[in-house]
Write a structure and sequence with these properties.
This protein has 73 residues and is mainly α. The chain is 75% helix and 0% strand. The protein has one domain. The termini are far apart.
């Protein structure tokens, strides 16, 4: 019982700080791949000060750059 009480906050934090942001990045990638050629796309940049937040922001930059290059072509 004590193990359960100790593990619940850890699971909550893991989900909130790691799993949920990674799922958001994954969904953004899927949406981007499915909508190539349909411009413009929305960017859902995150303000998280973490490696995951930086990865999400970098992916948004890549999306924007790719969109601009597609428009030029």
């Amino acid at each position: 019982m004590l193990g359960l009480l100790i593990s619940l906050p850890f699971v909550y934090l893991l989900n909130r700080l790691v799993i949920a942001p990674v799922k958001l990045i994954k969904q953004d990638m899927i949406d981007f791949a499915q909508s190539l050629g349909q411009l413009p796309l929305n960017t859902n940049a995150t303000s998280m000060n973490s490696v995951i937040g930086e990865a999400h922001n970098t992916f948004d930059d890549v999306k924007t750059t790719t969109q601009e290059k597609m428009v030029q072509q």
